[in-house]
Amino acid sequence: MLRLSKKLLFAIEAVVDIAYHAGTGPVRSSDISRRQGIPRRYLEQVLQQLVHHEILAGQRGPKGGYRLARERRRISVGEIIRIVRDLESSADPASEMEGSEIGIKVVRPLWLDVQQEIMERFDRITVEQLCDDARRKNITSEAQPIMPDFSI
Prior knowledge:
The structure is a single chain. Residues 148-152 have low confidence and may be disordered. A hairpin with a 5-residue loop joins strand 1 and strand 2. By secondary structure, the protein is mainly alpha-helical. It is 54% helix and 5% strand.
């Protein structure tokens, strides 16, 4: 099921951060956490999953961190979504075969079709495109997370 979650946003942000800040060495998770405002407990879990699925490559040690496992243009947002969706592993109610006839034959197929169209669009969006967008929007290397202002 396609569902927006913090973990999904964090995964996409982390991969784009790594691609955007790629230099000669790996990008440290502490730097990603600071720049993107991602809690370390979420970040490490997501990064390890992305390493396991060969989106990222991890390097241990004092100069360790993460880098892309392949070229930015060869990693799609759709891939990242599927990895996180599997990590969250909640059942998709649209794929269940019990319920009303209208639900099974009309509503769920509609939902699955729209979900498929959205995923096809995400499959066409690459990490390179997101980095280009960040560059056009003048995102700096040391950007701090934008926190909502709840003052009145």
